[in-house]
UniProtKB/TrEMBL annotation:
Pfam families: SIR2
Primary location: cytoplasm
Catalytic activity, as annotated: N(6)-acetyl-L-lysyl-[protein] + NAD(+) + H2O = 2''-O-acetyl-ADP-D-ribose + nicotinamide + L-lysyl-[protein]; N(6)-succinyl-L-lysyl-[protein] + NAD(+) + H2O = 2''-O-succinyl-ADP-D-ribose + nicotinamide + L-lysyl-[protein]
UniProt keyword list: Cytoplasm, Metal-binding, NAD, Transferase, Zinc
Organism of origin: Novosphingobium mathurense
Cofactor binding note of this UniProt entry: Binds 1 zinc ion per subunit.
Cellular location(s): Cytoplasm
Descriptive protein name: NAD-dependent protein deacylase
Binding residue positions for substrate: Y56, R59
Residue intervals of the Deacetylase sirtuin-type domain: 1-233
Length: 234
């Protein structure tokens, strides 16, 4: 492999699964007994805000009881020790990358531990419930919603992500299904722009064929092994 300096890593649900965080994909389209279209779309929020807020209050509470696993810790070590550019683009809305110590993290689908005020557009750190319609810390309006990108909404940070992909020597996809765009298209962008590509996933994903190399196994095993290898070559 050529000299690697700039790395973009995309992480998905497979990284947090071994920390006990499930997604709607685990339950055959159901998420904690809810259909995705009933809790994770702007239309659902307009139709039944209490159901949606209660659902996210439950998720927000649950993730605070979970702990980062060996995959999060390995990526945090890479973040700390890698001397080139690095961007961890995560589809996960938990804060386990940060709690493991990583700082170069971009949450393209938002964060459970933020509330977004639809009145003043300010995002505030948030750990408690939203169901009781608390006032926005910034403007005082009772207009907070989960700061999570719902189906049908635009992911965050796309310009920054594509800028990083343009400069990347290596693109690594970890624990993602390869099914949800635009993230599923990153590997093709990276390839077109000349980066080497690697998939680390529990099993071959829908996009496996697009990668130069794929390694399959639990994230807590394949990710630390890959990070060790990469740092040894630095
Ligand atoms: Zn506000």
């Amino acid at each position: 492999m050529n000299q690697i300096r700039n790395i973009v890593i995309l992480t998905g649900a497979g990284v947090s699964a071994e920390s006990g965080i499930d997604t709607f994909r685990d339950g055959g389209g159901l998420w904690e007994k809810h259909r995705v279209e009933d809790v994770a779309t702007p239309e659902a929020f307009a139709r039944d805000p209490e159901l949606v807020l209660r659902f996210y209050d439950m998720r927000r509470e649950a993730i605070q009881t979970r702990q980062p696993n060996a995959a999060h810790h390995a990526l945090a070590r890479l973040d700390a020790e890698w001397r080139g550019e690095l961007l961890i683009v995560t589809q996960n809305v938990d804060d386990l990358h940060e709690r493991a110590g990583a700082s170069r993290v971009l949450h393209m689908h938002g964060e459970h531990l933020n509330a977004w005020c639809t009145a003043c557009d300010v995002r505030s750190p948030w750990t408690g419930p939203l169901l009781d319609r608390p006032p926005c810390p910034e403007c005082g309006e009772a207009a907070l919603r989960p700061d999570v990108v719902w189906f049908g909404e635009m992911p965050y940070g796309m310009e920054e992500i594509f800028a990083a992909l343009r400069d990347a020597d290596l693109f690594v996809s970890i624990g993602t299904s390869g099914a949800v765009y635009p993230a599923a298209g990153f590997v093709r962008n990276a390839r077109d722009l000349g980066a080497a590509t690697l998939e680390l996933n529990l099993e071959p994903s829908q996009g496996t064929g697009w990668f130069d190399e794929a390694r399959h196994g639990p994230a807590t095993e394949v990710v630390p092994a890959w990070v060790d290898e990469l740092l040894a070559r630095q």
